[in-house]
Amino acid sequence: MVSVSSQLANRTLLSGTATDDRHKLFHVILVVSHFSLSQRKIYCCSIFSSVYRLAIQFSRMDRSKVGELMVITGNSHPELADLIAKRLGIKVGAASIYHKTNRETMVDIADSVRGKDVYIIQTGTKDVNNNIMELLIMAYACKTSSARSIVGVIPYLPYSKQCKMRKRGCIVSKLVAKMMCRSGLNHLITMDLHQKEIQGFFDCPVDNLRASPFLLQYIQESIPDFRNAVIVARDPGSAKKATSYAERLRLGIAVIHGEQKEAESDMVDGRHSPPTLRSRTMDAARGMPVMTAKEKPPINVVGDVGGRIAIMVDDMIDDVRSFVAAAEVLKERGAYKIYVMATHGLLSSDAPRLIEDSPIDEVVVTNTIPHEIQKMQCHKIKTVDISVLLAEAIRRIHNKESMSYLFRNVTLED
Length: 414
Description:
The structure is a single chain. By secondary structure, the chain is an alpha/beta fold. Helix content is 36%, strand content 18%. It contains twelve helices and 14 strands. The radius of gyration is 30 Å and the shape is globular. Residues 11-19 have low confidence and may be disordered.
């Protein structure tokens, strides 16, 4: 009796004979009301077992939709790839990237990538053009080998500084974005883009992670008496980032205004030169207002840094001469310790020597770019590990989880 009645209740609940859900529930209650207490217990157990079997089926279906995770890396930063793979509990896939005698790039992926979710870890270093070609060839090799998805993990995006139109030049970062998408990348993970608008150059989703929580933690744990510090913007362009740091640390802010060297946008090119020949069409310019030449003020500090710790923040450190000049000004204004914080430490040319001879006490960068050689040349360079953030981003994307947790308490100005 109980099996026939329970089958009737289940059929009534799941079938379409009733007009709506309320009528279905009413029919089930009517059938179950005729059960004794023991029969109701048996019916509840059968319902729970059915729900459990359905849950197992759904979990198997969800797992079938997720491909196997695979991480491969180029020659740009294998140490970071090893750290990420270790945190994910996997090994880096076997891939050989080398150059032939004619300097052509060769890629040989030893492991099968068919049906797998492949994550290519490749960052931008001083050998930037080879880094890009390695990434493009690896992505295209995975695409033609039937990989399920190809995600580029590029902590420092090459050519990100060339994201604006420069006289007769072009927007190179858009060209790089188009090439990456056409090569087979269908998702991108990067960190602290030079300009957030670069995400719009890509035809695939871009997750622009932030390293500021790691740098803020370093300030709080490794800088003694950081409450007596002031966050310094090296130029007015980085004032928003400095404000974001200052608000989260509850500190003051100072801005360095003025430049000692000529900006690239002010350099004279052919378009500033008057034509050598006069023609009748030149008369059309009569009546136009005269363009006033821009005169930069002498370098100055807006804000009080006397007797305090000065912490300069920026997204990258490449040519350190501007940072050294700013540090000298801060030292003249009374700052007794000077720190420089940045996400990407390119530290090109003779940056270690300049930092060593400068008033800067510490340069703190993350390991988005390898700089072990520079650290051996200058003891002031410190590194913050961000592999845990990249590993968590890969895990969440692979498991189709939300990425919003990685952006908590991160402002738009950061």
